[in-house]
Amino acid sequence: MEKVVIYTDGACSGNPGPGGWGAVLMYNDIKKEISGGKRDTTNNIMELTAVVEALKMLKYPCEVDLYSDSSYVVNAFDKGWINNWIQNNWKTSSKDPVKNKEIWKELHSLIQIHKVKFIKVKGHSDNEYNNRCDELARKAILNIE
Q1: Which residues are part of the catalytic machinery?
Q2: How far apart are CA 97 and CA 77, in angstroms?
Q3: Contacts of 143 (CB under 8 A, 6+ apart)
Q4: For the segment 37-84, what is each residue's pLDDT rounded down to a tens digit?
């Protein structure tokens, strides 16, 4: 299985408000940057969208180290929240519907294809790739028509 490293980030100008996401994918010595934005969204939706769009770029099953500064994204997998949500028919432990269910479902189906390890990075610190993703996400907000 090929090894890929992915960094992702999402940003919002206001929450909700215009948002953007960015990702950097690295395979051997190849680096690819992707980004996008949405007029009316939330920070969490942009964080999730960055991960989904990055994983959708992979053409075949890969082993992925995925770095995110979003506790929301990382904890859903590291703490097993997503498995509980699925088991509880997409309800939280407090019996509320899971927010952003459609994106979570898409992400869950993508991690069935790839072997993904979610790794939390400190946001807005000295991590070159996390900073680049933040830059991509913020630029994407400015380019929303």
Answers
A1: 9-10, 47, 69, 124, 134
A2: 18
A3: 20, 37
A4: 999 999 999 999 999 999 999 999 999 999 999 999 999 999 999 999
The pair of structure tokens assigned to 81 is 């929240």
Residues constituting the chain? 145
Please determine, for residue 145, whether its predicted confidence score (pLDDT) is greater than 70: no
- Asked if 26 contacts 38 with a C-beta cutoff of 8 angstroms, the reply is no
Query: Would the pTM count as exceeding 0.90?
Result: yes
User: How far, in Å, CA of 35 to CA of 37, rounded?
Assistant: 7
Q: For residue 56, how many other CB atoms are within 10 A of its CB?
A: 12
DSSP annotation of 130 reads H
Phi, psi at 32, each rounded to 5°: -130, 135
